[in-house]
Write a structure and sequence with these properties.
The chain is mostly helical and 506 residues long. The protein has helices at residues 2-18, 22-31, 37-49, 53-65, 72-84, 88-100, 108-120, 124-133, 139-151, 155-167, 175-187, 194-204, 228-240, 244-252, 259-271, 275-283, 291-303, 307-321, 327-339, 343-351, 360-373, 376-389, 393-403, 434-450, 466-474, 477-488, and strands at 412-417, 420-425, 498-499. It contains 26 helices and 3 strands. Strands 2-1-3 form a 3-stranded antiparallel sheet, with helices on one face.
């Protein structure tokens, strides 16, 4: 009778779980006298899938204290909570348990969840060791390791692993794989043919449903998309390359779009100073906007000098959309006002922020604006508040970086020409065309000065005179790339430059 009642309660819990009624499911669990492993697994899985990660860990602890033997479902259900909370210590304890119990580590769900924990906690090497020691690597495990590399900046390793999966393991990627590979190929300078990943996706059939054959020219293919994640990734990819027409074409031909799809296109318009288009897209949104939507929209308004439009959105976001402004939203609007030189308004906005919000980014944005507009008095106020909030942050970060052997990555820019990547660093003299590049830039600088251009040397920190600072600006990596692209392409050709760090202010 007891077993039958337990099974009934488990079925009730599962029913409530499918309906998203977590508290009712928990009430059934707590009223049950005879709980089995299915009961515990149902609750832990339900909490993890509902983003209630702390409760998932609490139930896991209770389960261990009750002496219930863990199985692969338990482990695969609790590890996502460790990953999202970045509880690497807890994840390592579970990993140790897995190693002590033969058979668990070979389970693809357990293996992929362990890889995800390590990578999300920035311990990519440990994640790779878990991956390598799993002999029966199914697609799920590859789908954990590839994005693990991408999200930690190891984009070349992500692309190499993707190719290994296809060529060596003989596995075909699925939509999850492609959604993680597309961002990697966007960032990977060694992967020159970005559009080919799009063609490969179409060829696999992730976007074509009416039986038409894959055609060599991407824009001639059918685009009846079947996966929102992959489609959104392509919208983002083309947007980052400045191909806004292609990005919009992908967007328009997607039959289903979620809030992420809308957000990445708004970001693309904002990135390329198309603020009015971003605003128009926002007005047409078919999905309910979220916090990221407003961050993207404020950035678009900021880059396009649409100050009043951005302020209107900010002051109406709670009433119109039920979204309470966060510290990130305030920082974005401070940046919006600061770029326009409206520093006093930006300062007043920071002062009106609710006490519970973190003001660090807002003060930092104001300080940056004061530097640009050379407002020393207000800049000192912003700096004093930053130092009061985080007095030892910079020192501690540098100390930790030194202890870990972390070195600052030198700034570099690169450009693709005829399937070959050309990389430049500031003051680079190693390129075969060095003489022509510097001669071109010198001639261009002379022409610009005659037209009234004055170099912004405020960001050059070397102890040299103003002429020397101007010469240093001339050798910045992004300028060398522009010179190379101009000299080696036909007039009117779009020059696409990639950088690993921010663009020089000048």
């Amino acid at each position: 009778m007891g077993d039958q009642k337990t099974s009934t309660n488990n079925a009730l819990m599962a029913m409530y779980a499918k309906l998203g009624r977590i508290d009712e499911s928990r009430a059934v669990f707590e009223s049950s006298v005879d709980r089995d492993i299915v009961s515990w697994n149902t609750m832990i899985s339900l909490f993890s899938q509902s983003d209630r990660f702390s409760e998932a860990l609490d139930f896991f602890r209770f389960m261990v204290l009750e002496g219930v033997e863990l199985d692969s479902v338990t482990i695969a259900s609790v590890l996502p909570a460790c990953s999202h909370l970045e509880r690497l210590d807890f994840g390592k304890e579970i990993h140790a348990y897995v190693l002590r119990n033969n058979g668990l580590i070979e389970n693809s769900f357990v293996g992929s969840a362990l890889v995800d924990v390590y990578c999300n906690c920035h311990d990519v090497e440990s994640g790779r060791r878990v991956f390598d020691r799993n002999s029966g690597r199914r697609i799920k495990l590859w789908n954990a390791m590839i994005p693990g590399y991408t999200q930690n900046g190891f984009v070349e390793k992500a692309m190499i692993l993707f190719i290994e999966m296809i060529e060596v393991a003989g596995l075909l990627p699925n939509t999850t794989t492609m959604a993680s590979v597309i961002p990697a190929c966007v960032q990977c300078e060694a992967f020159s043919s970005k559009e080919s990943i799009h063609g490969y996706t179409v060829k696999l059939g992730f976007e074509c449903t009416n039986g038409h054959r894959f055609m060599p020219t991407l824009l001639e293919t059918c685009w009846h998309r079947t996966d929102v994640t992959v489609g959104s990734a392509f919208v983002a990819m083309y947007g980052k390359f400045g191909c806004l027409n292609l990005s919009r074409k992908v967007f328009n031909e997607m039959p289903n779009r979620n809030v992420i799809t809308w957000n990445v296109l708004i970001m693309a318009y904002g990135m390329h100073r198309k603020g009015e288009e971003a605003l128009e897209l926002f007005k047409k949104m078919e999905a309910e906007p979220n916090e990221v939507t407003f961050i993207a929209q404020f950035a678009a308004c900021s880059h396009s000098r649409l100050i009043n439009e951005g302020l209107t959105l900010f002051y109406r976001m709670k009433n119109d959309h039920g979204i309470e402004p966060t510290s990130d939203h305030y920082a974005c609007v401070v940046d919006l006002l600061g770029r326009a030189g409206r520093l006093e308004e930006a300062y007043e906005l920071v002062k009106t922020m609710p006490a519970e919000l973190d003001k660090v980014f807002a003060w930092s944005s104001l300080l940056g604006a004061c530097r640009i507009h050379q407002n020393l008095e207000l800049g000192e106020v912003a700096a004093d508040n930053l130092l009061r909030l985080e007095p030892n942050v910079a020192t501690e970060v540098r100390k930790n970086m030194r202890q870990m052997g972390v070195k600052k990555e030198p700034g570099c820019s690169w450009i693709e020409l005829r399937d070959e990547v050309h990389e430049f660093m500031a003051g680079d003299v190693a390129h075969p065309q060095t003489e022509q590049l510097y001669a071109f830039l010198e001639t261009l600088s002379d022409k610009m000065r005659k037209e009234g251009y004055v170099p912004d040397t405020s960001w050059v920190l070397h102890d040299v005179d103003e002429d020397g600072k101007g010469n240093l600006l001339c050798g910045h990596s992004e300028r060398l790339v522009i010179a190379f692209g101009t000299l080696n392409n036909a007039p009117g050709t779009t020059i696409r430059e990639a950088k690993n760090l921010r663009v020089c202010n000048d």
